[in-house]
Hints:
The chain is of the alpha/beta class. The protein is 35% helix and 10% strand. It folds into two domains: 7-110, Gyrase A, domain 2 (2-Layer Sandwich), CATH 3.30.1360; 120-247, Alpha-Beta Plaits (2-Layer Sandwich).
Amino acid sequence: MTAFVNPTLAAFVGQLSGELAFAQVQIRQEAEGFTLRHIEDAGAPGESLRAIGIEDLRLLVQTTVTDAFRPLKSAPNLRRGWRAHAADTVQLGIALDHLYPGAIADWFAAQARTPQVTHYREFTARQTGMYRITTLPDDYRAAQITRACCDRRFCLKQRLWTVPGLDTDVVADKSLIPCLEPCALMMEFVRKAVRLEKEGELSAAISPEEVRRLQEKLDRPVSSIREADFESAENPRRLLLLQQLARRD
Ligand code: SF4
């Protein structure tokens, strides 16, 4: 009996045309099934990579090479050194759902003439409880916070939602995986930015020397800081936000 293939997945496979880069994963169509590996291992001999099962991908994506938890699976810190084989389209769908949960459905949604995107103002207006304060930043500040949070060095999703005055991302800078609304990490980052603003941290003058120091820290992030730990002054998203403020980006 032929397995049922979700039409969304069938549409995705239909445009694969042999090989495709999907964020940090290279998908290659073979005579039988598909092979997947890290994009930076695209040219590596197959035998030099560890063969893993489709179900092993679920565990692989949980941590970085330094064993830090990956709260955002679209962060550009997927482990390298593996290869997986999907015997058919159904298995490919399972593999991609482990690697990038929900990405195929979002990709399909973004193919619509008018994709269903929830922009910052609409999204934050719906927030309740401790996230109500995410409505407070004006458009200029919300755009700065968004740029810092969704920067390519932190997330490979192509942001299709906007704040007035901020352009959307383009595939060439990010990936084929769209971001249709602000994520939980973004909401947490906005909360922290609002609190920093109230404490005067975002309005303090930053000297050229401090800007240089911020750049050095961004170039050499402290690997022990958890990605979602916005309490840490060394969190790279916080550092990037401060740098943008200093430059008036
Ligand atoms: S809101 Fe930004 S950080 Fe979150 S998934 Fe979308 S693009 Fe990535």
